[in-house]
Design goal:
The strands form 3 sheets. The protein has a 6-stranded mixed beta sheet, with helices on both faces. Strands 2-1-4-5 form a 4-stranded antiparallel beta sheet, covered by helices on one side. Strands 11-12 form a two-stranded antiparallel ribbon. Helix 4 packs across helix 5. Among the domains are: 63 residues, no CATH class; 85 residues, no CATH class. Helices cover 30% and strands 22% of the residues. By secondary structure, it is an alpha/beta fold. This is Peptide ABC transporter ATP-binding protein. Belongs to the ABC transporter superfamily. One of its GO terms (molecular function) is ATP binding. It is found in: Cell membrane. It holds the Pfam family ABC_tran.
């Protein structure tokens, strides 16, 4: 992207993250890089197992003991978070950078009232009294649209609906006026009506609080509603990165094309939805070449051997051999078990180009 580094609130560069076991180190994230400008929303898209949540946990400094950052930088307002101590990160986490987790019922403590949990977070980061902290909780409940906020602060999580619990999580995340909010699948367990309300609420709060958002999702409907920029991940790698409009108007990577084609259409005949056959490979069983090669309808012989570099334009990079100068010279795939998605119908399709 064309912006200078000074304009970015968050910069992630060459992030490599993995887990140690008794025998070796298994790498999950492979050279993940992206930027977030102040006041914009970046959507990170991909199937389960693509590394979206692990990216967010790396930013927050919440990797499990067996996990670790092998290399790369995570710069927030010029400060490299990978060099911060646990004590220093605890001052940033929940204060300057906050996170909404996937399932509020498992994120909230069932033995404490929701008000007590948020007030505790406020007192950790703000020099306020217990009464002032509770007043802040009431204020936040009003802000996120929870009715009867003074009564609701005394509720336990199980006494609230899924939509209300999600609003509590948003109130908790925003209680200290963070500059950056990371939302990990914030509407997954909600029905479509409540989902729309939550997305509208996040957009309103983003504008009101002059806040940036990193939205992690597998739902392209959420992307079209929220995203300024979109990062598509597959098997721990960034495979496409552009603005939201360009992604939907001109998706380049075969994986991105497959995701968009699988969206149900309101017009036309009712037919079987296209699917991307197969599944994301296990980290211990990554293909030797392009990580998407075993599921790709366009794959050539070299795709199974050599991993593609990032190509395309500065505003729309893509990790795929089809957009390199080598594509026409490559050997067509002869068939076999390696490519289980190579139906004649799929092979006849042509890559989408500018």
């Amino acid at each position: 992207m064309k912006n200078t580094s000074e304009e970015y609130q968050l910069q992630v560069r060459g992030l490599e993250v993995g887990f140690n076991n008794k025998k070796n180190f298994t790498q999950i994230l492979n050279g993940v890089s992206f930027n977030v400008q102040k006041g914009e929303t970046l959507c990170i898209v991909g199937e389960s197992g693509c590394g979206k949540s692990l990216t967010s946990l790396s930013i927050m400094g919440l990797l499990p003991e067996s996990g670790g950052i092998r290399s790369g930088e995570i710069r927030f307002e010029g400060q490299d978070l990978t060099n911060q101590s646990m004590k220093e990160m605890s001052k940033i986490r929940g204060n300057e950078i906050s996170m909404i987790f996937q399932e509020p019922m498992t994120s909230l403590n069932p033995v404490h009232t929701v008000g007590k949990q948020i007030a505790e977070a406020v007192r950790i980061h703000r020099n306020v009294t217990k009464k002032e902290a509770y007043e802040r909780v009431v204020e936040m409940f009003e802000l996120v649209g929870i009715p009867s906020p003074r009564e609701r602060v005394h509720n336990y999580p199980h006494e609230m609906s899924g939509g209300m619990r999600q609003r509590v999580m948003i109130a908790m995340a925003l209680a200290c006026n963070p500059k950056l909010l990371i939302a990990d699948e914030p509407t997954t367990a909600l029905d479509v009506t409540i989902q729309a309300q939550i997305l509208d609420l996040l957009n309103e709060l983003k504008a009101d609080l002059d806040m940036s958002i990193v939205m992690i999702t597998h739902d392209l409907g959420v992307v079209s509603e929220m995203g300024d920029q979109v990062l598509v991940m597959y098997a721990g790698e960034v495979i496409e990165y552009t603005d939201s409009r360009s992604l939907f108007d001109n998706p380049k990577h075969p994986y991105t094309q497959g995701l968009i084609e699988s969206i149900p259409k309101l017009q036309g005949k009712t037919e079987e939805l296209p699917v991307i056959k197969g599944s994301v490979p296990n980290p211990d069983e990554m293909p030797s070449g392009c990580r998407f090669s075993t599921r790709c309808a366009f794959a050539k012989q070299e795709c199974f051997v050599q991993s593609p570099e990032e190509v395309g334009t500065e505003d729309h990079p893509v990790r795929c051999w089809m957009y390199s100068g080598e594509w026409q010279k490559m050997t067509p795939f002869e068939g076999g078990e390696s490519n289980d998605n190579s139906s004649s119908e799929a092979v006849d399709r042509q890559p989408i180009r500018d």
